[in-house]
Amino acid sequence: MEAVRWSRQLIPTLREVPQEAEIPSHQLLLRAGLIRKLGAGLYTFLPFGLRALRKVERIVREEMNRAGALEILMPALHPKEIWEQTGRFEVLKDVIFKIRDRQDRALVLGPTHEEIVTDLVAHEVSSYRQLPLNLYQIQMKFRDEIRPRFGLMRAKEFIMKDAYSFDADDAGADESYRKMYDAYQRIFRRCGLRTKIVEADTGAMGGSSSHEFMVLADAGEDGLVECDTCSYAANLERAESVLRAPPAFEGVGRAVEKVSTPGLRSVEEVSGFFQSPPSRLIKTLIYVADGQPVAALVPGNRDVNEIKLRRALGTKTLILADPVTIERVTGAPVGFAGPVGLKIPVHADLKLRGYRGAITGANQADAHIRHVDLERDARVTAYADFSYAMEGDGCPRCPGMLRTRRGIEVGHVFKLGTKYSELLGAMYLGADGQKKPCIMGCYGIGVTRTLQAVIEQSHDDQGIIWPVPVAPAEVEVLLINEQHEASVRAAEKLVAELEEVGLEVLYDERAERPGVKFKDADLLGLPLRINVGERGLAKGAFEVRVRQSGETLMIPMESIVESICAQLAELRRARGAEEQG
Ligand SMILES: [Zn+2]
């Protein structure tokens, strides 16, 4: 094999931090010469970025095959009609790229493939004997993101592994789900990632159950909570939480009193005026749910989680009311709504149960009321949990406390049920001769996003620290002085020997100053680096630098290959042990 010589490669490292990149992993992808931007949310993979990406793909493929899934490749272009059959052309209309062919037929650039794979199975599967079946692909997806950002994290096109399981019964579907869940744990562990598995909302997919695999990172776009005592963890969209006791406010037991609050509308303004904590306010939001106005109450320091509220109301649509509707149902302009005396259904967040001594709008311009006892003074239609969980809330499963975290979603598993198979006719004939819909699951991994998440989780001020299994190469041989002939001979012999035992080597033989080469080596972050220079050769040794620990070792020339192999094995093992712990 021809050695990978840096001078013959395209690894355009950058000294400066590119302005467009806000988070470390995006900066490092650009600075280490792994990707380049074409346009908003569009990136080219350069050779070393692609090498790392292929390694992530290989791990994903191996584990999917091991779990019994079968690889296929579906088209990226879909007829629009199939998306209309499930109603998702409408649901996903904001993110779907729509195009037309020369005959003016409407096509969609696939954002995901539930419809396409279900259509395939509808044609190819007819008997329970063909089930279970799990089909997957590793393929480019397209989404018209409003705000592409963070490099590969939120791009307009990205590589995804998507798998779809088809089963004859619920027990089988549960087993398929479990297999994928286990495979995902292995995949992320092998990629060197520490992930947190959280309960998630099923959202636009429909279905009954889902989990997300999150990489904890401050730069993550997703919020999540985790219990400090038990294993409960959930996406913020989904998270439940409890208040251990209703807060005690002054004025409890006193009669409601109206207070003039001219022009004070926001929670900050009103709580400032009353010199009370925001939690003492009852925030009243007017929504229109399936065409009917409803009031939703939450404590003043919390926000309404509209996903949870819509589920609690059991309605198809939920939108914030416009100012005209608000004035019609409350009798007051925006900012002065309150539950007392409202004639529309009033839904209160569970955390308001037992609220007394509270402050809320008076349903009258420029006025609020205080000493409100929610049970006593208002007619609450129902209580439900529809506010966002917050740091310090009680855990819904144990006496522990919730903490909030940020995460990057790298994988997602869903139980889909029969929604798609019914709509698209993926039916099978059971042993009993009955025709039934296949029970489906779907399972995604953002492959390009996983690659970036590895860097987000594994870097320092100098650059990337690649875990061995996904590093673009395992070892860098750095020739300190390319004018020194003995060094050149020793380095080339070393490169050949390392390749002989099957290692992937990058050979930096560029005519650059040593300082530049050292900086680039740390930036690119291959697991091990061997410096070949006059000083070491004089002692019959090579200097080996371990990127992760920063250790420098002098290794005798005769045992260098053996030592490098042992250290790589140790790095792989240590990473695995850390994962188990
Ligand atoms: Zn707990």
Query: What ranges have pLDDT less than 50 throughout 5 or more consecutive residues?
Result: none
- CATH level-four homologous superfamily name of the largest domain: Bira Bifunctional Protein, Domain 2
Give the DSSP E fraction (strand runs of 2 or more residues): 25-35%
What is the total number of structural domains? 3
The total of beta strands comes to 32
Model description:
- The protein is α+β, with helices and mostly antiparallel strands and 581 residues long.
- The protein folds into 3 domains: 242 residues, Bira Bifunctional Protein, Domain 2 (BirA Bifunctional Protein, domain 2); 128 residues, YbaK protein (Alpha-Beta Complex), CATH 3.90.960; 115 residues, Anticodon-binding domain (Rossmann fold), CATH 3.40.50.800.
- It is 29% helix and 29% strand.
- Strands 4, 8, 9, 10, 11, 12, 13, 22 and 25 form a 9-stranded mixed beta sheet that branches. Strands 1-29-28-30-31-32 form a 6-stranded mixed beta sheet, sandwiched between helices. It has a 5-stranded mixed beta sheet with strand order 17-15-16-18-21.
- A hairpin with a 5-residue loop joins strand 12 and strand 13.
- The site of zinc ion has 8 residues, from loops.
